């Protein structure tokens, strides 16, 4: 892109942001900041409020209550075209009668930028997304991935300080999504623009983001770096939505968790304010031991193999515990894999430092005492 582009994006501040549709509250009093130049992802299931939040930032949806500002300036009452925001939609929204170059040029014409400058800016944007050789083609002559690149070039060509992206890769196949994720990450690093990205794809969020805000039922459940969310979820919802989790449901007694006649140890530094809890472990942190002999590990629990699935780079083993609940073990294909078959009796073990104790009905309450137990 040309050297006159702003090196950093804008900050976005939301305080007590609410959106109601009649009696339905789509977004419920959220507080959220996007830092200048960061890649912030809004992650959650359908109907969780993430897209409504994005549309309030864009100005496409009116704010019911609360404050919304960009770089400290209130924008709640500003129309979309005055917010200096770029937008990329899932379904591209390209003009079919225009060429690639004309599509990218369109927002520049709307801003009355001189023709000579427009040509340079369009060329720079198409080069950034690797489509300079397709400038004369029509959208119908392009693949889905190429069309999405055109939409991205059109959104960044006028150098907005904020770029909003609503499920931009949702219509593409997995291999193409993986490729475009890396391209979007590179473009973000090159531009320094503030990206706010909506997705329901947990892997996409972990790959792309500086921080992730996890939405559910119109509220933010947790916000943090991908590592924070994966390693230290504050609720069972976050643990299960962000990556896979094996959940051992049990009862908290003092600082011990009783699960199916066993006592398990977790030291992740939170203690729920409820007796009904779950010990949560990522499947790749669990070891599987065939046979009936009990391992010497502190955290050992018995089960029976239901099935195992080979994925090329990993093996997943589904195990039913003695209490009837199901958990998952994931092993890297590079590891020495013990042979297991359906109906085999096995023991599962994991380290206390790889486990969290979370309430079954909500976020955990911070507590200075780690959860410990003995068998």
From TrEMBL:
<dbReference type="Pfam" id="PF00005">
    <property type="entry name" value="ABC_tran"/>
</dbReference>
<keyword id="KW-0472">Membrane</keyword>
<keyword id="KW-0547">Nucleotide-binding</keyword>
<dbReference type="InterPro" id="IPR050093">
    <property type="entry name" value="ABC_SmlMolc_Importer"/>
</dbReference>
<dbReference type="InterPro" id="IPR005893">
    <property type="entry name" value="PotA-like"/>
</dbReference>
<keyword id="KW-0067">ATP-binding</keyword>
<comment type="similarity">
    <text>Belongs to the ABC transporter superfamily. Spermidine/putrescine importer (TC 3.A.1.11.1) family.</text>
</comment>
<dbReference type="InterPro" id="IPR027417">
    <property type="entry name" value="P-loop_NTPase"/>
</dbReference>
<dbReference type="InterPro" id="IPR003593">
    <property type="entry name" value="AAA+_ATPase"/>
</dbReference>
<keyword id="KW-1003">Cell membrane</keyword>
<dbReference type="Pfam" id="PF08402">
    <property type="entry name" value="TOBE_2"/>
</dbReference>
<dbReference type="GO" id="GO:0005524">
    <property type="term" value="F:ATP binding"/>
</dbReference>
<keyword id="KW-0813">Transport</keyword>
<keyword id="KW-1278">Translocase</keyword>
<comment type="subunit">
    <text>Monomer. Homodimerizes in the presence of ATP. The complex is composed of two ATP-binding proteins (SugC), two transmembrane proteins (SugA and SugB) and a solute-binding protein (LpqY).</text>
</comment>
<dbReference type="InterPro" id="IPR008995">
    <property type="entry name" value="Mo/tungstate-bd_C_term_dom"/>
</dbReference>
<comment type="function">
    <text>Part of the ABC transporter complex PotABCD involved in spermidine/putrescine import. Responsible for energy coupling to the transport system.</text>
</comment>
<dbReference type="GO" id="GO:0016887">
    <property type="term" value="F:ATP hydrolysis activity"/>
</dbReference>
<comment type="subunit">
    <text>The complex is composed of two ATP-binding proteins (PotA), two transmembrane proteins (PotB and PotC) and a solute-binding protein (PotD).</text>
</comment>
<dbReference type="GO" id="GO:0043190">
    <property type="term" value="C:ATP-binding cassette (ABC) transporter complex"/>
</dbReference>
<feature type="domain" description="ABC transporter">
    <location>
        <begin position="12"/>
        <end position="242"/>
    </location>
</feature>
<protein>
    <recommendedName>
        <fullName>Spermidine/putrescine import ATP-binding protein PotA</fullName>
        <ecNumber>7.6.2.11</ecNumber>
    </recommendedName>
</protein>
<dbReference type="InterPro" id="IPR013611">
    <property type="entry name" value="Transp-assoc_OB_typ2"/>
</dbReference>
<dbReference type="InterPro" id="IPR003439">
    <property type="entry name" value="ABC_transporter-like_ATP-bd"/>
</dbReference>
<dbReference type="InterPro" id="IPR017871">
    <property type="entry name" value="ABC_transporter-like_CS"/>
</dbReference>
<comment type="function">
    <text>Part of the ABC transporter complex LpqY-SugA-SugB-SugC, which is highly specific for uptake of trehalose. Involved in the recycling of extracellular trehalose released from trehalose-containing molecules synthesized by M.tuberculosis. Trehalose uptake is essential for virulence. Responsible for energy coupling to the transport system.</text>
</comment>
<dbReference type="GO" id="GO:0015417">
    <property type="term" value="F:ABC-type polyamine transporter activity"/>
</dbReference>
């Amino acid at each position: 892109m040309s050297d006159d582009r702003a090196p950093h994006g804008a900050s976005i501040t939301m305080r007590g942001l609410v959106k109601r549709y009649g009696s339905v509250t789509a977004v419920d009093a959220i507080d959220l900041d996007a830092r200048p130049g960061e890649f912030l992802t809004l992650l959650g299931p359908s109907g969780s409020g993430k897209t409504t939040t994005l549309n309030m930032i864009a100005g496409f949806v009116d704010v019911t209550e609360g404050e919304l500002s960009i770089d400290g300036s209130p924008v709640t009452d500003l129309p979309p075209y005055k917010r200096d925001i770029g937008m990329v939609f899932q379904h591209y929204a390209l003009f079919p009668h225009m060429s690639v170059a004309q599509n990218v040029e369109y927002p520049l014409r709307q801003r009355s930028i001189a023709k000579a400058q427009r040509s340079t800016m369009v060329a720079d944007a198409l080069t950034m997304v690797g489509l300079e050789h397709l400038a004369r083609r029509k959208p119908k002559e392009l693949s889905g991935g190429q069309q999405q690149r055109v939409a991205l070039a059109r959104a960044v060509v006028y150098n907005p300080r904020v770029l909003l992206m609503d499920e931009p890769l949702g219509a593409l196949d997995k291999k193409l999504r993986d490729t475009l994720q890396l391209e979007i990450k590179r473009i973000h690093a090159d531009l320094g623009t503030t990206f706010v990205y909506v997705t329901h794809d947990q892997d996409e969020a972990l790959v792309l983001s500086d921080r992730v805000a996890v939405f559910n039922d119109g509220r933010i459940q947790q916000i943090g770096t991908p590592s924070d969310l994966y390693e230290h979820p504050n609720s069972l919802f976050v643990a299960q939505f962000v990556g896979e989790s094996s959940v051992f449901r049990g009862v908290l007694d003092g600082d011990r968790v009783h699960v199916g006649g066993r006592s398990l140890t977790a030291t992740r530094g939170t203690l729920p304010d409820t007796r009904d809890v779950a010990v949560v472990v990522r499947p790749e942190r669990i070891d599987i031991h065939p046979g009936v002999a009990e391992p010497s590990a502190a955290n050992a629990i018995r089960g029976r193999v239901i099935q195992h699935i080979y994925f090329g780079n990993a093996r997943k083993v589904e195990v039913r515990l003695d209490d009837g609940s199901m958990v998952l073990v994931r092993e890297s294909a590079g590891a020495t894999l013990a042979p297991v078959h359906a109906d085999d009796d096995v023991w599962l073990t994991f380290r206390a430092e790889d486990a969290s104790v979370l309430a079954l009905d909500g976020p955990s309450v911070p507590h200075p005492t780690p959860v410990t137990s003995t068998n």
